[in-house]
Amino acid sequence: MAAEPDTKAPPDTEVLIVGAGPAGLTSSYLLTKAGRKVIVIERDPTYVGGISRTVNYKDFLFDIGGHRFFSKSREVVDLWNEILPDDFIDRPRLSRIFYGGKFYAYPLRAFEALKNLGVFTSTLCMASYGWAKLFPVRPVKTFHQWVRNQFGEKLFSIFFRTYTEKVWGMSCDDISADWAAQRIKGLSLLNAVVDGVKRSLGLHRKPSAALGEQGGVKSLIESFRYPRKGPGMMWEAAAAKTKAQGGEILMDHGLEALTWDAKAEVWTVTVRTVTGETKTITARSVISSAPITELTKAIEPRPASFANAQALRYRDFITVALIAKSEATFPDNWVYIHDPSVKVGRVQNFLSWSPEMAPPGYACLGLEYFCFEGDGLWTSPDAELIELAKREIGKIGLINPADVVDAAVVRQPKAYPVYDDAYQANVDAVAGELEGAYPTLYLVGRNGMHKYNNQDHAMMTAMLTVENILAGERRFDVWRVNEDAEYGEAGLSGAEEALKSERLVPKRVAA
Questions:
Q1: Model confidence pLDDT, tens digit, residues 30-62
Q2: Among 17-21, 79-83, 505-509, which is the least confidently predicted range?
Q3: pLDDT per position as a tens digit, 285-323
Q4: Mean pLDDT, residues 59-76 taken together
Q5: Which of 238, 242, 411, 431 has its CA 20 to 30 A from that of 462?
């Protein structure tokens, strides 16, 4: 262990931030802009941005997962424009579903779906929907029950079950309804049918990607903004501006230990590089976007809720990027692969995200395989994964495998926090203890809060946390930020209005 710090000396930094992803770098940018001293530690030796990074392989750029820059929050959009003012492009949003050897537009086009499914199956879908509305499952506890109530059992089995179980590696009966309510909120069969008929007849109004046109259901938007060289541009710019404002970013530095001195009100943080070198940093406050499992392993002494933290689970995934000597691919940004005859879950077409993601004359597709770290897919040699991807892309028919001239494999651990039936109780136990026992420890972001959110939500949790630090008190409860990156229902400005009438206290307090 490192030597005990001199508690009489000032801390090395005001705020130490764990993780240089969207939440961590939003925090560092805003804090250094406000004149605060900040150190960011990031385990990755090369890339900032976390899952929102852009990987560069021989000048081919890979977006890890696909990141639309679309938000209902004016504060988030304004911050995107402030950090990256000149590099956004507007992109059409096009995606399809591959099921049973056929492609379906997503969101569905009513007449196309009717043709592909056939009159008999379509009739069964509507009858199943009617039955679900007459006899809904109550209470709703699982993903299966939630979707069945909203769309009917037949549509659930066609358009939800296979893909969802590929993503999560578990039965839809073991996934919490919270995930469905969060990710499919606002989308009903009636909305989908009405929207699909409008699309089929060409009557659907296409909203602009600009702010002011970003209302409605996120699943139905038709355009979005995107950095011309991938989402990593945003976070590389945030990192550069953090450093220009006096902040420090330590790459290849992972969290090793975290100790709180209540008397001195100082954190002692031990960090470790990949070569095993350690250093100690002292800080007044710590912002953590690290997975809760890793954070609680580092805290000394161990929290009482340690077992709850370790019970939290994550889903990992692998991107196999296939590089083809051809520009004639397909127009989709991505295709959801619902067909159970192949293992791939989703295919990204990086050129449809931005024409600058690949050199001229080439196409680059990202085949995404969902897995658990350490399982058979995860541990497969890269060469085997590339051959699997080539076989499956040929079977789906998106490109000719013979055109593939190169490939790369990117593994992403802890990509998705798992929403099993116990996750919420476990998160509540951990957050309640940590936020009650440690007044200057703040949890933010997807893995820091174990929320399957988008980057705008992660950013909003960081923005409110910065407000709390600058105010010297927890004025805002970041757990109230919803999946649309709005605080309650009104965004950051709404939170400020609420404070004029009453103080908001943290939802979770120590037991």
A1: 999 999 999 999 999 999 999 999 999 999 999
A2: 505-509
A3: 999 999 999 999 999 999 999 999 999 999 999 999 999
A4: 92
A5: 411
- Quick check: is 61 in a domain? no
User: Token digits for 300?
Assistant: 């000394």
Report how far apart, in Å, the C-alpha atoms of 470 and of each of 19, 389, 437, 464, 476 are.
20, 49, 20, 10, 12
Q: Per the structure block, which two tokens stand in for 356?
A: 């600058």
C-alpha 378/C-alpha 371 separation (Å) is 7
Residue 235 has φ and ψ, to the nearest 5°, of -80, -25
pLDDT of residue 191 exceeding 60, the answer is no
Whether residues 322 and 405 fall in one domain: yes
In Å, how far are 96, 394, 497 from 501, measured between CA atoms?
A: 47, 61, 7
Range of the domain at 446: 13-54+232-310+421-501
Mean pLDDT, rounded, of the chain: 87
pLDDT at 209 exceeding the cut of 90? no
To the nearest 10°, report the CA torsion of 143, 145, 149, 151.
Answer: 50
- Residues 6+ away with beta carbon under 8 Å from 448: 19, 23, 288, 289, 290, 291, 292, 295, 461
> Of 401, 417, 433, which residue sits at a domain end?
417
Last residue of some domain: 400, 417, 434? 417
- H or E element that contains 195: helix 189-201
Q: How many CB atoms lie within 10 A of CB 193?
A: 15
Residue 510 has pLDDT above 50, yes or no: no
User: How many domains in the chain?
Assistant: 3
pLDDT reported for residue 484? 67
pLDDT band for position 184 (cuts 50, 70, 90): low
3-state DSSP assignment of residue 49: coil
Contact present, 468 and 496 (Cβ < 8 Å): no
Query: How many C-beta atoms lie closer than 10 Å to residue 90's C-beta?
Result: 11
Q: Are 445 and 21 in contact (CB under 8 A)?
A: yes
SS3 content of the chain, % helix, strand, coil (to 5): 40, 25, 35
Q: 233: which DSSP letter?
A: H
Single-letter amino acid code for the residue at 126: M
* pLDDT band per the 50, 70, 90 thresholds, residue 443: very high
Q: For residues 485 and 442, what is the distance between their CA atoms, to the nearest angstrom?
A: 18
Residues 425 and 410 in one domain: no
Q: What are phi and psi of 288, to 5 degrees?
A: -115, 120
Count the neighbouring beta carbons within 10 Å of the beta carbon of residue 262.
Answer: 9
| 291 contacts: CB under 8 Å, gap ≥ 6 | 312, 314, 414, 447, 448, 450
Phi then psi dihedrals of residue 414, to 5 deg: 50, 50
